[in-house]
Amino acid sequence: MKRRILTMLFSMALAGLVLFINFDANLVANPLIADFYLENFNADTHTQNAVAAIYLNYRVFDSIFETLILLVSVSAVINFSWRRTDD
Amino acid sequence: MTENIFLITLVVLAIVALNTKKLRRAVVYLGAFSLVSSFVYLLYGAPDVAIAEAIIGSTITTVLYLVALRKYQVFSIYYANSVGDQTSRYLNDNSTFLNNLEAFLIQREMEPQLIYSGAPIETIVDQEKFDLAIHHTDQDIWIYGCAEDYQLDAVEEYLLTNYGDLNIHLIRCAEGEDNEA
Amino acid sequence: MTDRSEIISRMTGLLYPFILLFGFYIILNGHASPGGGFQGGAVLASVFITRYLVEPDRCIRLKTLKTAEKTLFVCIILYPAFFLFSTTANHSELMNLTYLVAMNFLIGLKVCSGFTIIFFRFAFYEGGI
Question: FRET pair for B47, CA 20 to 30 Å: which of B18, B123, C6, C129?
Answer without folding.
Answer: B18
